[in-house]
Queue: 2 jobs
Job 1
Amino acid sequence: MGYRENPRPGGRSARVQAAVHQSVRDMLATMDRADVTIPLIAQRANVTPSTIYRRWGDLQALLADVAASHLRPEGEPASIGSAREDLAAWVEQYADEMASGLGRQMLRDVLAAADSANAEKCGTYMRCQLSVFIARAEACGEPFPTLTELMDHVISPIIYRILFDQAPDSDYVRGLVTKVMPESTART
Amino acid sequence: MGYRENPRPGGRSARVQAAVHQSVRDMLATMDRADVTIPLIAQRANVTPSTIYRRWGDLQALLADVAASHLRPEGEPASIGSAREDLAAWVEQYADEMASGLGRQMLRDVLAAADSANAEKCGTYMRCQLSVFIARAEACGEPFPTLTELMDHVISPIIYRILFDQAPDSDYVRGLVTKVMPESTART
DNA sequence: TCCACTAACGCAAATTATTTGCTTTTATAC
DNA sequence: GTATAAAAGCAAATAATTTGCGTTAGTGGA
C-alpha cells in the first residue's frame, strides 16, 4: 500500500520515476517555473497525473525530490594539488553552481517542501563531500579545518547569501576558505 | 491596474490586507499547514478568493508576505549590559524562535516564494538589527565584530543548521558568539 | 459639496488541478 | 506457473484557480 523509497532498479516503478524526473528536468530547463504543472509533467512522462499525486503528493514534493537527486554528488571531488587547493576549487565551483538561477531554484525547491527529509539529505551530502577533503589532508599530515568549521564558516555563509542576499562572488568565496585554514596557510 | 506595495493606511485596501494576514496567522497557528487554502483564508477574512488571487497571486506568495511581515523587527533589541552580552542574548532568542516549528515554517515560506523580494527583506532586517549592536559597541569603545563577521559566522551557521540540519542548541549558539568576538573577550 | 476617476473588490461562469474508488498491470516469491 | 501485493491506469467527483464584467469606495479637482 505504500511506495518504497528506493524502487528496485529495472522495475516498472523505477522507469516511471526516471521518466517523471526527466520530464521535470526538461521542463525546468526550458520553461517558466510557473507553467510547470503536474498534469503537464505527467503528459510528458507518459504517465497519469494520479500516479504522480499518489507517489509524490504534490508539486513541491516532486520538485524537492528532483532537486535533491540533482544535488547528490556524482563522484569524489577532483584531487589536483594540496587538500587546501582542492577544497578551494571545489567550493568555488559549488558556490557558482548554487548561485546560478537553476541552482538557486533547486535550493528553494528542496527547502519549500513540507517534508524536510530532502533538505537534510542535502546537508548530509555536503558533509560527506567535505569529509573527503579532511581525510585527504589527514593522510598527508596537512593541517586542515574540522568539518564543523568548514560547514559553519564556509558553506553556511555562502548558502545564506544565496538565499537571503546577493550571490557571493569568487573573491568572497576564496576569502572564506583562506580564513578558515589553520595557521595561516593563507596565500592570495 | 496594479496593486500598490504599501496601501494607504485606513483605506479599504489596507483593511483587506490586515484581515487576510490575520486570517493566515490564525490558521497557521491552529491547523495543519496542508489544510490552509486560499478559499478558506478568504472565507475567514470575509473576502472573495479572487481578491486574494489578484492581489498576491498564489498561496506561496501570500505566506511569504505574512512570514516576512512577522519577521520584521518590532523595536530595538534590549540593552541590558555590554554590547557583547546584549548581542548574545538577542541571538540566542532569535535562534530559538527560528528553530521552533513556526519559525522554521516562516523561513521556508519566505524562501519558497517565486519572488525573492521577501527573502531579501529578511536579510535586510537582520543587518539592521545587528547594526544596532555594532553602533552601541562603537559608542562605548567596546571592541566588536564587523557586520560581515556577524552575518557570516553567527547568523549564517544558525540559519543553515535550521534549514538543512538539526536545530542548533543554546550552547552552540553561545559558542558562535564567543568565537566571533575580537581579542578573546570570551567568557563561558 | 459634488462629480469624475480609478484602484480594488465582489460575483459567477469557465477552466484547470486534485482527489478518490475501482480496475488492471507487472514484478516477485513460492 | 500461480498467488500476492505494490504500483499504475481510468474516470467521476470535488476543489482550486482564472477571468470577464459590474460595483464600491477612496482621491482629487472644480
Job 2
Amino acid sequence: MRLVIAECQVDYAGRLTAHLPMAKRLILVKADGSVSIHADDRAYKPLNWMSPPCSVTERPAEGAETEAGLTEVWEVRGRDGDTLQISLAAIHHDSSHELGIDPGLVKDGVEAHLQALLAEHPETLGDGWSLVRREYPTAIGPVDLLCRDPAGAYVAVEVKRRGEIDGVEQLTRYLDLLRRDPLLGDVQGVFAAQQIKPQARVLALDRGIACVTVDYDALRGMDRSEDRLF
Amino acid sequence: MRLVIAECQVDYAGRLTAHLPMAKRLILVKADGSVSIHADDRAYKPLNWMSPPCSVTERPAEGAETEAGLTEVWEVRGRDGDTLQISLAAIHHDSSHELGIDPGLVKDGVEAHLQALLAEHPETLGDGWSLVRREYPTAIGPVDLLCRDPAGAYVAVEVKRRGEIDGVEQLTRYLDLLRRDPLLGDVQGVFAAQQIKPQARVLALDRGIACVTVDYDALRGMDRSEDRLF
DNA sequence: GTTTTCATCTCGAAC
DNA sequence: GTTCGAGGTGAAAAC
C-alpha cells in the first residue's frame, strides 16, 4: 500500500465526468492496483476512486503541464475505458508498506443469526410458543419463522435487525397469503427486531401485528455455541 | 489527517457486531474525527469505519492486554452508542498532515446535463427534429424529451448516461401511456445514451425503439456556455 | 427535523 | 455471465 499526500488535481471520466480542483489530499494506491483519493473528512467514501481491476501509469509532467506547476501525471485505467487522471504538483509525503492479505471481517448479529437464535428460542417471542419451521415457503418468498402458540394457532414472524416500515409491509404481504391457506386457519403476525422505529410500530399495531423488541445479547447468552467471537 | 500503519484488531458494535482479527492495516483518522480501517485491496470501502460525528480516545494497554501483546487501545464512539475498539500491537508508521478544507468535487456529464445538451441540439437525435419540451409530463412521471420529426410525428426520448435494460423498460412504460393520447397520435421511441449495453440494445430494437449513442464531448463542443471545467 | 431518493454506489449470492 | 437485493450502506434533496 502506497500513501501519498500531495497537492493534486483529479479528472475522472467514466460513468460520469468529474473534476477535483488542485488541493492537498491523500492518494491511496493499494496492492490490487486500485486507487482512491481522500479529503480530510468523511470516513467512508473517497472523493474519487478506481475499483480494481485497473492499472496505474506514472509519467513526469511535460511542457504546459510543467508551466502550470505540475510535476507528475498519473493515469489510472479501469474497465469500460474509465480513466482517472491525477495531476500532482507538490508531494508532501510518499511511503509504501507491505500489508499482506487481510484475514477478513467476521460479521455477527446479522439478520440470519438473529433468526437462528429466535428459531432456537421461540419462547422469547411468546410463552409456550414452538417453532414450526424457519424459512416457511410462500408464493412470494419464505417467511422468516412460522410458530404456533399454546392454543395451536399459527404465528408468522418477520425478523429484522432494525425494524422499519418496509419490514411491516413485507410481513403484511406474507400474512395476506398465509391467511388464504385453509390448512393454517387464522395466522397472527409478529414483527421482531432489536430496535423498532416508532412509525413502523404504529403501522404494525394498526394492522394488528404485534411488535417484539429482541435482546440480542441475552439471546446469545442463552446459547454457548454462538460464542464465536474471541 | 493521521495515517497509521499498524498490527491491529478491531471490534465494532452497533448496527451489527463485527470483528477483525489481528493483522497489519492502515488506520485513517481524519480532521472531523472520523476513523476508517483499510486493508491492501478495494478502493472504495473500508473494512471498518466510524462516520462523523464521533470521538476517539486513546489509552495505553493494561494488564491482560499488555500480556496479549497489545500496546494501545483506541475507542471510537459514534452516534446511537456505536463503538469501534481498535487494539494496536505494533505501529509501523504514524504521521499527521494538515490538509485544509477540500474545494470539493465538480460533477459534469450527469444525466440532467446530457438531457439539457440534447434539448438544445435535438438534430443530434434525428435530422430535422425539433424539441417540443423537456420533462414532458405523464401520469407515471416526466419523459426526458418529447420531440417532433420533420413529418410532424412525435418522438419520446429517454436519456441515460449508460443505457441498460431498466432504461428501456422505463421508456416502454412512457410510450404505452403516450400512445393512448389521441392528441399525440403514434409516438416513436428513442433511447439515447453515451453507451448502450448490448442486451439493452437488443430489447429496445425488439420493441421498435431506436437507439442513439450520444457523443458527449462533441455535444459539449457545440455549446461554449457549457465549458465549465478548467 | 424526518423521509425519500440517488450513487462512478459496492458487494455477494442466486440463477 | 447476468440479475437481484442487502448494506453498519452514505449523502443529498425534498418535505
